[in-house]
Amino acid sequence: MARVCPQCGAWCEEEPIDFTVPAVICPHCQYGEPFLRLPLFVITGASGTGKTTLARYLPERLPECVTLDTDILWGVLPATAEKDYVDYQDRWLQLAKHIAQNGRPVVLCGTTMPERIMGSPEHRYFSAIHILALVCDDDVLVQRLKERPAWRGCDEETQNQMVKFNRWHKEHGAETEPPMTLYDTTGVTLEQTLEDTRQWIYERLDTTE
C-alpha cells in the first residue's frame, strides 16, 4: 500500500487500481499489489448531535470495527479552508485504508461532508462508503451547545451556524453522493443510539462483505 513499488522500487505518485483483484498497479513495472477493500463508515453531523459520544462508547459494542474520533488530529494534520478541508479528510482516509488492511473496517466519527470524502482519491480503496448523519431538534441542539464549558467556544454565533448545518442535513442528506442516512438523537437515550448505530453498521457489513 506504500507509494514505493515493492517490485521495482519506483515512486508512484499516481496509484491506478485494478478493482477486479483488487490491487494497486505500479505505473512503471505494472506490478499489482493486492489489498483488502472493505467498507468505510462515517458518522457526521453538526456539533452537539452526538458524534463524540458515539466515538467514545461505540468501540466496546463494535469490536469488529475500529472506531476513531477524527477531532483527535485536528491541529496536527493539514486542514486548509481553501481546499475545503479535503486535505484533512485525505489523511484520515489514508489512515483508514491502512487500518483496514488488518481486516477490520473503520468507523470515522467527525464533522465532514460527502464531497470531501469523494474528493479524495483514497475513497477508491473502500468497497463502499456509508454515512450516518446525526441530527436533532433545533432547540435541543442549542441547549446542548449552551451546556458546554466556555473553552469550547459555543457562543451564539456558533450556535446559529450549527443550527443551519443541522437543518442542511435534514433537507439535503438524501441528495448527496453518497446519500446520508439520517438519525435523530432528539429524546433518544445513549443506549438506544448506540444499539441503533451498531445495527446500522452490521446491516451494511453483511451487504458489503
From TrEMBL:
<dbReference type="GO" id="GO:0016301">
    <property type="term" value="F:kinase activity"/>
</dbReference>
<protein>
    <submittedName>
        <fullName>Nucleoside kinase</fullName>
    </submittedName>
</protein>
<keyword id="KW-0808">Transferase</keyword>
<keyword id="KW-0418">Kinase</keyword>
<dbReference type="InterPro" id="IPR027417">
    <property type="entry name" value="P-loop_NTPase"/>
</dbReference>
<dbReference type="Pfam" id="PF13671">
    <property type="entry name" value="AAA_33"/>
</dbReference>
